[in-house]
Amino acid sequence: MNIPNHTILAIESSCDDTGVAVIKGNQVLSNLVANQEVHSRFGGVVPELASRAHQSNIIPTLSLALKDANVNIKDIDAVAYTNGPGLSGSLLVGSSFAKSWAWANDIPTITVNHMRAHILAHFLDDSPSPNFPFLCLTVSGGHTQIVRVDSPSEMEVIGTTLDDAAGEAFDKVAKLIGLPYPGGPLIDKYSKLGDCKRFIFNKSNVFKLNLSFSGFKTQVLRFLQKNLQENPDFFIDANKQNLYDFCASVQHTIISMLMDKLVLAVQQTRIDEIAIAGGVSANSGLRNALEAKAKSDDWNIYIPQLRYCTDNAAMVGIVGVFDFEDERFGNLKDVPSPRLPDLRHSV
Ligand code: KG4
Ligand code: ZN
Asked: Cβ(342)–Cβ(170) under 8 Å?
């Protein structure tokens, strides 16, 4: 696809990562993320601490991103920033800073939907990008959606979770067994050492292309209560095999639920260009399941590079490039929206 060659400074602050990137067309000149360690001991993101950390991180991250990109400020065409969905205080820090910086440098702003940014991350760099129309399974800590993508600006959510997001299911199970936040990457790591058939959890199945993880979470909680009551050292066995098998079984169930709905979406839409996006697209089980489908059912699959899976500003920048071309600019009166319903919903 032909990507317009605009230079965009991008800011991402929807949750607990402060991201700043500079991109020119689809080329990433710099892409920095300041992670917030402060949340790990709380088992989840503490919104007030996230806002404060964004405030301390944003100026140094921007200075470094400009330095790394080696661009002159006067060469930047616009500032693109995430204006939802996300945590209210976090979004306010990023959006206030982005608008002020754009105003001070007399350049336009572009407001970006975080979920659209995850999807369009597939157009960064020169790796093969999906052809339109494609389906994107967007799986993060806050969202789980199956999206039909007809162009960079036309997207429709055709399936969604009715309760927890897939990443949240990983994180909450991890918290139940005392792993630090975010637990998804650790469950993934331990899964590689375990037997995914050792413990059987039932998959929830809700209507149409929608998903639900709350029943699964309750099942896991009951499983833990029962097993830890019978054996308080359940997870402290000599070689940690119970821990590894438990993680593998949990991961296998979450990924099968996602794959079941993706298969149904392919059958219903007859689209077999399939992309994944969001933090959980880093998961090795999901990547393997997709690769198996590419072989068995001839799906064309698109898996983002790891650095573009979790929250980052380069993905916000590529939305800025497309919207700059379409002259879709924001203004100083824009306010961030924690529940931004920007992608069209049909569920
Ligand atoms: O997209 P993201 O960085 O932030 C949100 O917009 O939510 O996604 C973060 C989520 C967390 O729930 C984290 O546990 C999950 O992505 N995650 C993973 C893996 N890497 C990140 N979940 C499972 N396996 C992974 N390898
Ligand atoms: Zn995200």
From this structure: no
Q: Whose CA is nearest to atom 22 of ligand 1?
A: 184
CATH number at residue 77: 3.30.420.40
Rounded-to-integer distance, Cα 170 and Cα 213, Å: 10
Gap from CA of 32 to ligand 1 centroid (Å): 17
Asked if residue 22 belongs to a domain, the reply is yes
User: In 3D, which of 179, 303, 181, 309 has the Cα closest to residue 247?
Assistant: 179
Is there a single domain that holds both residue 95 and residue 151? no
Q: For residue 213, how far is its CA from the centre of ligand 2 (angstroms)?
A: 18
Question: What atom in ligand 1 is closest to the CA of residue 181?
Answer: 14
> Does residue 283 share a domain with residue 171?
yes
Q: What is the pLDDT along the chain (347 residues), one digit of tens a residue?
A: 889 999 999 999 998 899 999 999 999 999 999 987 777 777 778 888 999 999 999 999 999 999 999 999 999 999 999 999 999 999 999 999 999 999 999 999 999 999 999 999 999 999 899 999 999 999 999 999 999 999 999 999 999 999 999 999 999 999 999 999 899 999 999 999 999 999 999 999 999 999 999 999 999 999 999 999 999 999 987 789 999 999 999 999 999 999 999 999 999 999 999 999 999 999 999 999 999 999 999 999 999 999 999 999 999 999 999 999 999 999 999 999 988 766 877 76
Total domains present in the chain: 2
In three-state secondary structure terms, 294 is helix
Listed residue (331, 321, 341, 209) closest to 271, CA to CA: 209
Ligand 1 proximal residues by C-beta, below 6 Å? 15, 140-142, 167, 170-171, 182-185, 188, 278-280, 282-283, 310-311
Residue 53 sits in which domain range? 7-126+308-346
Which residue puts its alpha carbon closest to atom 20 of ligand 1? 185
Asked whether residue 1 is domain-assigned, the answer is no
Indicate the helix (H) or strand (E) that contains 292. Answer: helix 284-297
**Residues 285 and 219 occupy one common structural domain:** yes
Cβ pair 126, 267 in contact under 8 A:
no
Do 139 and 283 belong together in one domain?
yes
